[in-house]
Amino acid sequence: MSHALSAIDLALRGDAGGLSFLERTAAIYVLDAATTPGKLTTYGWWNFLNDALNEVERYEASSSPPDLGSHVRLLATITRRVARRPPSSDRRLIGTCLANASMSHMHLLASPEIGQFLVQNNDEMRERNMGRIASIVFDFSFYRTNSIRRSAFSDPVALEQFCGVVAANAVSTGPDAVKYLIADWIVPSIESLPPYAVVAMMSHISIEAMGKGCPVGTKAVIQSLLETVLKKAVGPLMTDALRESDGGYSVLEIRDTAPSGAKMSQRIAALSFRALESWCRSTSTGIVQLRQIFSSTNINILETIADAMYSDAAIVTDAVSDLLDVLLDFCRRDSKISSGLDIAQSLLGMMKHSNQLDLAQQLTSENRRSKIIILSELVSAIGLQRFRFSERQRIGDNAVCRCLARMAARILLEAEDDIKKGSMETSLDGIFDLLFKAMSHPSLDVSGIALEALSAFVHSEKGLSTRLLPLLQGKAIIPFHLVSGEDINGFEEYRNFRERVLNDALVACYEGCGLFFLESCCSAIEEFCIANQSSHLPYQFEAALFCMIAVSEEIAKPLRRYQHDGSSLINVDADAQQTSSFLERIVSALAKNAFSSTSHPLVMARMCIFLNKYATVFPLCSSENTFETASELALSSFNRSLEGGNYDAFLDSCDVKSPLSESCNALQQLLRSCPAHFSAPTAMNALENAWKMPYACRKVDIEDRESLCSGLCYVISSLPSEQWSVSVENLAKPLVACLSVLAKEADTEKNCDIIPSVMKRISHEILLLSSIVRYFDQADVSNLDDGKRALRGKVLVTLLNRNWSCLKHIGETYSSQEVVAEAIGRLLSDSLWLYKSVEELSFLRELSNLAKTSMLGIAKTNKPTSLPSLLLFVKTMVELHGQNAETSLQTNDENSFCREIVVDLIMVSYEAVRLCPRLDVTNGSSDASTQGSNTSTDLVSSMFATLSSCAKHCPRLLVVLAKDDQPLGELLRLSVEAAPDALKAREVEVALSAVAFLEMLITSASCLTFDDFEDTKKSAALSALHRTMSIIHTNVLASSLVSVCEAASQEVVGPTINLIKSILKHSQWDQIEGSIGSALNSNQFKLGDAAREIMFDNLKQCSMNGYPPANFDGIIAEIWQMHQTDDTGAIAGGEAVAEFVKRYFRQQAT
Fold first, then answer.
1. Nearest by Cα to 197 from 258, 264, 101, 131
2. Radius of gyration of the chain measured on its C-alpha atoms
């Protein structure tokens, strides 16, 4: 192959060089001064396209041409993208090419006529290529089947893409080109042009016209040509294609190589509907307006749509579905307008109103009546498809079944309000029958579509919920072929369907037939508990439990309103009593089963989830034994899971947590819902055994142990206060003993392969100790007085002091290990809340010293991944004690000791971050080859979060912070200087943390005073603050404005807008005018002078007035949105910018 096809061939094979060559050729021009010495030419995509087309034609003229279908498809795809670039952008690219080459070929480019000549040559090359492509797509020979050999240009996909090329070129050239192509060329010659090319061209013209970069006036031309195109081109070709697709092949038909085997007439019909859809979308035409357009022709558009529903080609029915979606969306919009006019009419009341309102209301009333008639016809038409649905399902045509279900669901949902009002003029039996058939379809795509529609009517249609429930229960059973785990994607699809679509449908069904729902599920569970074992029983059992879990919140809400009096519910209505009795029956049946049916890991896990979801309801049941039985079931499941085998592989295939994990979660909720129930000695012994079990078998994950710890802390908190100390010590005893043993093992271990596992176990025990501190301190605090809260803190402080030497040794020695540092950081953060008074200052100092030692040790080992958890401790310290440190800046009272601790922590943390390998937040990397983007993200965002906390709780302290050998405020200055790079970071977390810090700093700085400082220090503090704010007024503001003109993540745009408003609000215009001007005049702003002026004026108005204009956020958000288009260069003169300028200039003028 020659050079053009060789490059395409390499790209098709995935070669990086081939792909790069095509991308660069499509994006830039190069100057060619070597091919013909003394004669300059440029080479770009249009030259490459010309060469490629020549090569394809040359190969096809040979006796045995290769298959070039894929090459032509790729060529057409890239060409369409390049054709979206307007000729003016092409000329700018050539200008850039000449400017770049001027230094090396200055003697050849001395004359300006040479540049003009090169631009003109490129324009001619583009036009010549467009002519060649148009001749290809309008050539009947590429659509005939009687040719001896098939051309690569006969591929329907390539032909459609080439039609898209011509359409994109016309739209990017300007509205006059669009009008000429349609009105002066295609429509007058429609009888002599291939129908496929005509409808493809029409479809792609309207699609391209919806782009943000389309030239000004394009949408107006599209609107003016709407009736002409629909009446003279799309409509007639659509009806002819539908008629031909019902019979045999016409003269112009070919077969596609795709598996669908669609006839050309079917492709034309599908493209016709696509064209109709895109024209309606681009002109905001709804179904009522569309019917009016065709009313003057012999085409009944509703009958045409109904006829298309009978098509056996999925591409046709899918196109009709998309068309109905668009038409009905605009129909809904019109309904909202009608509702607004009704509201306006009612508000006017007896007041005199204008004739315009009467006319508008009359028109909307007529549209409303037309809409009801149209929806009735559509309901009737789709209802007739129920028999054909069964036929297509029988032969396995899932695609057509999906399209029919989609159309039925969309029509039904659109007619929902009219159905509930009784306004429909046809029977609903047909459409409901079709949707119930679709609900029973084995494909999740089909049944999910039907399910969402039917769920919306379970309240309004009598008997629908009871008819729907058995189908939902059947869908809840995991298909047997998915259990093996071979079809991983299939199970993931089913899991998503069940957890989202099916779950919502079950809730809607329960709301429609609550007691029937409970009776059905309860009876099923009771039956499964006594049924003989079979291979299908576990999955049926699990499905019944799943149905009960799905509606747990709806069941629990009304029951939680009632108070338990020790034996029964008081003030309970009949429904609540019946609901309670169903739960009692289910728990009783599960207990009597004695794990004969519930021993299956999937069933056991689902049973524990059921106990978890209803844990707060069981104490409210009429029978006291229900809660006790549920607790025994959860504990038995825990013990049985420890004794059982490893089901991880099986459960992973079903995407379900292990029974052990779910039993721990269930126990946690049961212990927390009624902790006093477990204070009896027998219950405490059982819980103690469960707590110590992981040390014997090591099967319980740390997350599950933390869940169990949470519940046990609630139980201890319910004991008399004099028992707290002993109980907490007993709870911590096994983990403290384990920590001591593991620390000695780590100190003596020399095998590097064993140390990571030891570190992991150490971190787990520290995390458990942290959980004890957190959960016991916070358990049921609403019922505690201040004395008992203080007593809890002392119990925990005593526990930590008693074991501090071991913890300190671990922190100082092994904090360079990430898992240990994370655990230590969490323990320190949770322990901070225990400091209540100055008497415990030594405890606070110990926490701080361990954090400082750990951070400096981590910094020296160049392992920054271990720092974020300790920075969280610093952040928490500032949040809790920063204000005390702030108030003691000029005093030596008791808070001055707290200030010293806070200052030391901030300085040490900043120094630790500074000592780590240099981080490049703009690309998420660091100098150390072992560090990845997560390191940069976590560390930088954690440091900014800490600084943000300082700016909020101790801003004056932050302003004056510096090392002894540095000027005052140096830490703050360096932090603010790093912020502009963080604003440009790819990682959202880094950018958001920097924005939060800057906004908090600006807000706090606006009201700072240093009047209590001595004169020298006051002057230094004010000078430091002024330097910092100067950086914000220049670099930070400019970076913020640039970030909304670049590909910033959408999550960052809103906070960045708020940051910009804060800077403007707290700045003088002369301080920021220069940075705003430089940002808006940079290359990043691509929307033209008018949009730049609007942006500049709004920024100025915000700064001058001290508050933003009403449309400020919308303007910047639109600026960002318009910058997210492709890089064709068309945006600055586009329709979107023109509308933006027109809208906001008008608002400014008013």
1. 264
2. 36
